[in-house]
Amino acid sequence: MNSKKLPMRNGVGVIILNNENKVFVGKRKDNPVNKWQMPQGGVEKGESYLSAMKRELYEETSIKSIDILREIDGFFEYELPKNLVGIIWKGKFRGQKQKWFIAKFIGDEKEINLQTRNPEFIEWKWIIPDDLPKTIVDFKKKMYVELLEIINDFID
Predict the structure, then answer these.
(1) Superfamily name and number for 3-155
(2) Is residue 131 classed as helix, strand or coil in its secondary structure?
(3) CB 35 within 8 A of CB 144
(4) pTM confidence score
(5) pLDDT in 10s for each residue of the chain, 156 residues
(6) Which runs of E-coded beta strand occur in the chain?
(7) Whole-angstrom Cα distance, residue 127 to residue 24?
């Protein structure tokens, strides 16, 4: 299968910071090895990036109490490894092109509940931003390194 012919999936992601400027990450249900990621997901037809981000965040974490600090300029992309092309997203996409946001969590941690209608995470935690590239699956590492630079500029 020539994955280069497949389009990129339109997506969103959100960097959630707490009061200590630590970043929210979840451990994926479908990849429970010690890999963690920030909330992210697809954009539905006719949906704005902002509403897609809020919907995905809520669907994955039950979080609603956020202050949106910034919509990050441009897009960030990752390609799926060959063994996942044709499997993930019903085989329609070769990777994802994402619009990312930075937001501050302003709620009580009791609000965070991973037992959602279609759970994606089995565990969550706050980590220091510099640990992000070490926690993510390899094929998203380059994107996380790029996002980390923006996070560090933002919180300094």
Answers:
(1) Nucleoside Triphosphate Pyrophosphohydrolase (3.90.79.10)
(2) helix
(3) no
(4) 0.93
(5) 556 789 999 999 999 999 999 999 999 888 767 899 999 999 999 999 999 999 999 999 999 999 999 999 999 999 999 988 888 888 999 999 999 999 999 999 999 999 999 999 999 999 999 999 999 999 999 999 999 999 999 897
(6) 8-17, 23-28, 36-37, 40-42, 66-71, 76-79, 95-105, 121-127
(7) 7
